[in-house]
Amino acid sequence: MAWVSNCALPEHWSELNAARKQRQQCAQDIQRIKIACASGCGKSHVSECSDCYKKVLDRMLARYSNEAGGEWFSQRSAFVLELEDQFAQAKEKKLALKEIESNIESEKEAWYRWVLRRHPEFLAVTDCGVELDELRAVLDDPDRSKDELVKIVWEAVGKPQDWSPKVDEFANKVASVGEDQAALRKLYVDEFLKDRVTGAPVKGAEKYIEMYSEKPDMRLEEIIDSIISENKTSQRFQEQREIHQGRLEELRRAKTAFEQDNPAAVSKGQQRKSASANANEKPVDLPPCSVCHKEVDPKDVLSCSVCQAVNLMGGEKTLTTYCTETCFHEGYEHHIESEHDCTSGDQCVQEGDEDEEMKDDINGTVICLRCLDEKKMSLFCSSRCAYQNLPSHLDAQHGFKGVAPQEVQNLVKHVEQVVEETLRKQNPGLEFSWTS
Q: Domain map of the chain by residue range?
């Protein structure tokens, strides 16, 4: 499954500028109310004047009710409704301002955690000695304070020197260009896509600069989103290449061991005759290479072990063969994704969980035992995915209703165990050592 970003990163500097502007304007308006109250109402403190105190509260609430304000709370409508009720109580002196401030801080912390979950790119750069599991544990634990969370996030991403003045400087630059889109785009390119010392494009940024320049309507967030997506895809393919290389080594070792123990067999990828067949009988015809479509040499052929196992069980699955290692590397990944992808489809946990690692590791995959009885292999990418989705699969495909999630572990089996048992049964001399 290809990785797809949920949405582009927000313009955090724009939110920062909006927050500063709104906060400053609100403070100035409240100060004017206080001055007017002191001179016109003769009260030593605005809280002693019922009318002016209500004006202060109304001005404070107006800031949070401004949906177009661009601040962190602007789209959190449920929170704003809650504030309206609390400010109404404050006007009646039934609720202290400190309680409202505490509620705002709690909501802001919840928003901060939401941002980190919504944009897992922040968690993906944990290369400073912080374990990702530790970071997620703090993120998911509401009892851990915001200060603890901020501290571990800084440790994970690496806290730059002079980060605060640099952020202020950049935010001020963004504010200074105003609505001049050409100047803003140039500022973005210089800040994010070019070396600040030499002015030259940073490595690999040329195509993004060209893309940004040729499309006036493209936002910076789309460029950042594209960079993140391509980087994620590149990392995934690198992991897959390593996994495939390991499987290729296992295929070589398995084939060698099998041929030594059973000279009648010519390769791990060749279908065996039944136990009653004549040992000297010629082997069945192998299908052509699934990549180049050339005839394969039965003495030097590689095949998909899952397809082979289904074939040996008597299922309808044909062998998927590769005539060379080059064809194996070119076609195996696509074959796995198209033929042995997770049965859960759009309901797969990898689709809905941004923190879920995208793995194509056969050792984590499990098989529906009901499908196995029918000489088919319906694969789930992980036990957790099967736990969530097997009950609906059993209902739709096998007519079994009301399967409880706790029963799932007895209705699935790890794919490597099934494949190994099947191939060993047909090929007694075969040895396996699955690569994780």
A: 12-157, 240-426
